[in-house]
From TrEMBL:
Family membership: Belongs to the RBOH (TC 5.B.1.3) family.
Native species: Nicotiana tabacum (Common tobacco)
Compartments where located: Membrane
Keywords: Calcium, FAD, Flavoprotein, Membrane, Metal-binding, NADP, Oxidoreductase, Peroxidase, Transmembrane, Transmembrane helix
Protein name per UniProt: Respiratory burst oxidase homolog protein E-like isoform X1
Amino acid sequence: MQLKQFLRSSSFGSCSSKRSTYSRNFDLPEDTPATEIFETGPEYVGGAMLPIFLNDLRQNSDLQDLVEVTLELDDNSIVLCSVAPTPSHNAEGNGSEEEAPNGFLARSASAASKLRRKFSWIRSPSVRSRTSAAPSEDDHFQFYNHNSNHNNTTNTLSAREEMKSKLKLVRSKSTAQRALGGLRFISKTTGESDTNVQWKKVEARFDALAKDGLLAREDFGDCIGMTDSKEFAVGVFDALVRRRRQKTAKITKAELHEFWLQISDQSFDARLQIFFDMADRNGDGKITRDEVQELIMLSASANKLSKLKERAAEYASLIMEELDPDDLGYIELWQLETLLLQRDNYMNYSRPLSTTSVGWSQNLGTRSKTRNLVKRASYGLKCLVLDNWQRAWILLLWVMIMAGLFTWKFLQYRRRAAFQVMGYCLTTAKGAAETLKLNMALVLLPVCRNILTWLRSTRAKLLVPFDDNINFHKIIAYAIAVGILLHAGNHLACDFPRLINSSPEKFALIASDFDNVKPTFKSLLTGIEGVTGIAMVILMAIVFTLATRGFRRNVLKLPPPFNRLTGFNAFWYSHHLLAVVYVLLIVHGTFLFLVHQWWQKTTWMYISMPLLLYVAERSLRTCRSEHYTAKILKVSVLPGDVFSLTLSKPNGFKYKSGQYIFLQCPTISSFEWHPFSITSAPGDDYLSVHIRIVGDWTNELKRVFTEDDSSACEIGRAKFEERGNVDQRGLPRLLVDGPYGAAAQDYQNYDVLLLVGLGIGATPFISILKDLLNNSRSEEQLDSNTETSASDDSWTSYASSSAASSGKKKSIRTKSAHFYWVTREPGSFEWFKGVMNEVAEMDHKGLIEMHNYLTSVYEEGDARSTLITMVQALNHAKHGVDILSGTQVRTHFARPKWKEVFSKIASKHPYSTVGVFYCGLPALAKELRKLSQELTYKTSTRFEFHKEYF
């Protein structure tokens, strides 16, 4: 009999799989050669062995049977699922064979059994496990799998052969192309010229490091550019030396060049072989579990992942379980390649909250690109106007007022008799003095935080950029410094000398202003005007100097005892000298040389109202802090020099997500208040903050709350096990002031959120994520209550629906949030581990996408992080937990590609308004602002950028 019209007369089989499952009948005619039945090729798994088996069928007289074969089909392979007699076999139960109506021979179990034996090697492990877990009508044909050690070995090797044959199909897929470009030992560059240029640098480093023309093994990393991962470089060195079947610790320049050509080879197979050789230390072409563990530890060491090294044995077992399901105790090169190429398939199991599953749409590129200078200029101008119009009109108004006051005072003194004596020196000094009065009044307003917080909730936020209050405060301070130079400089260097040296005739014009006594330079300086003026200049010079970045941020390293002049404490305390400055300013403005009428002495008119507002502000803060004394519920010491405080929420304390509070610990200082973002949600019954230890005050705060030195004001860590179980006796007081407004508090005004936090800069966004989750959960509960009430009796239903509608909160505008957290320390993920897990478990609507980026790990594709990427993908697919963060949120390596991030969000949310909120160092803010402007212009999505610095 021949095999004819294969896969004819189809009927669905009983094998369940993600693949399409078919059941086919075929017969075996006698007149057609078996070699014509199948074409061998990669699309037919086992196709080359089928004709051989058909020849055996010819020679065996008892195989003249008809059997039913069940196959699993996908795009790239065919897997044999089962071979069984047709249901009509032996229908009468008497064992007799009957001729079928179509003339075929009756089915027999012997033919099915032999065919199954012959093709058992193409059955995947998943099929075997599935058939064993769910017995079917053909289970009695599997007896050979368990009765013979010889058959077990044959099946094991067959399973490996099946995996190996599938590898060719997987490698041809487009999804594998990115993996094929990985395993880089040198850099991203692929051009030959780049490799040659890099070799010149390597050659120069060889000349500097080599001794007697030989490069030592331990210097190999420095020579090829792996300075930060020398241990990994030594592993590469040893692998390349083993290839030469040598045992040497030093190489020549010629040997180094040969090694360089191998590690810079652009072929994926060449790079894969080097990577395999690093693990295969005995050179037998096989990797054991211990060798996999050593390679994991080597990769973890290169990326400074200490926790990964501790669990290297567990992850090595995970890899062996996946690649060596038959427990032969080793894996080969092609199996390691299989794991690498299947990485994206494993990643597909990740939740959408950690992968941006966005298809490119027509939103991108809907507007034509700028091709000429005019369009580029108009685009730049448009972005400039959209981004800065609020700042522009405020600054323009301020400059115009200063110019008007300067001109008015300048012209006023230009017409006075004193101008004949002191000239333009006097008019310039008086004009500058008028601007000083204005700016000394305005400089207080940007730091009246309670007033600004209230104004944020009004329509004033549409016109005034409240987020730039500190920047405006600094600009006014610079204007004050310029005014002081003009005013004091002209007095001391110009008009005072002219007054002293004036002729009696000219002095007679203004003699009445000086009680008819011509002053001396000493009398001018020692008078009330002179003393108060000089004192203000000195005090303000101290304040301005200690407020500069070099002093405030401890950038300047001064020797003791001058080192106390640097840091936040020096900045904070020196700023309180301004209280003395304002007192001196009022006195200085009261005793003027050339003005005698009280209504002409306008200094008090400028500063009285802002000064009263600021005094009221500070008084309110003091009273409120006493009222808002909080109890400590929990203290947690976290990795990365961070600790968290969980406090009881004071009565009447209401806040919005994204806002911040000030904390004061009187045990440390009765004057210092420090700001911290709130990480709890408004709906929580507690307050929480996360504090990074970066200065004297935060160090002291941690010591007070975590160390036990038998002091009355200090407590031990043992008392901080669970929230609410803290012994309050002997605890230091902690005062709370706030809340205060920040840019992120307006997140509900946007359709989509893009939240970007660097390190501890993630804190304001944690509160937002929790608030979004709480609101989403509340809406689900209200919807559920409304649906339930609809099925009740009429009166009960009416009452329930009325209560639900009256209690239902206004639905927030935000429908999606994308959170990007970029950090250098893997321990940072412990800070908000609970929040991440809560979002993963409770975000049923897919409202939040979370993306963790660890910049200390080499980017995906680098050989030093390749094995970590494999383990991460495999562990996340099997257990749903990321190996670095310990949460369901997968961790990415290196830094995000921000242009791609913005483009995907624009593609996913066309015709939406995206609020981009950033908290971190200023350097990244420029890039995010630029991308917000660019994508707003090029797409139908509008991006509005807001920033907070720490």
